[in-house]
Amino acid sequence: GSEAASEQGQEEEVEDRLKEHMDNLQDKSAKVRQAALRSLRLALASKTLSEFLLERRLTLTDSLEKCLKKGKGEEQALAGTVLTLLCLQMGSGPEGEEVFCSLKSLLVSVLTDSTASPSARQSCATALGMCCYIAAADLE
């Protein structure tokens, strides 16, 4: 009994931290946004959070879009990596496809932008390839 309660308490704590990181993606400070992206990257890479993310995918997708559009260099690279992990978590169903389709043109835009940093372009290329492989329903 107490193990289950302890596990549920840890789960809620993890979710609260994730919500805080997602809120920090809206911050004016690039350093705060980058720290939030690093934390999200670590969380998405180490734990299956599909239930939690399913309810918040639109909010997270919007935040990643802003980081890709307005961010520079490292922020764009981190956003591309988090997007890849989000696609992996959402899987090949309609939710994953929705995330991919909403950011596909922006990924291509950063990838083809010769003024974007090499790390941002590489991260967006990886995100485009992985998300396309996982979530694209359209074979083209």
**Number of domains as seen in the coordinates:** 1
C-alpha termini separation: 52 Å
Overall radius of gyration: 15 Å
Number of helices: 6
- Tally of extended strands? 0
In the CATH hierarchy, the architecture is Alpha Horseshoe
Average pLDDT value?
91
What would you say this structure looks like, in words?
It is a single chain. This protein is an all-alpha fold. It has 6 helices and no strands. The longest helix is centred in the first third of the chain and has 23 residues, at 2-24. It is globular, with a radius of gyration of 15 Å. The mean pLDDT is 91. Helix 2 (30-46) runs parallel beside helix 4 (74-90). The chain has one domain (1-135): Leucine-rich Repeat Variant. Belongs to the IFRD family. Residues 1-21 are annotated as: Disordered. Pfam families: IFRD.
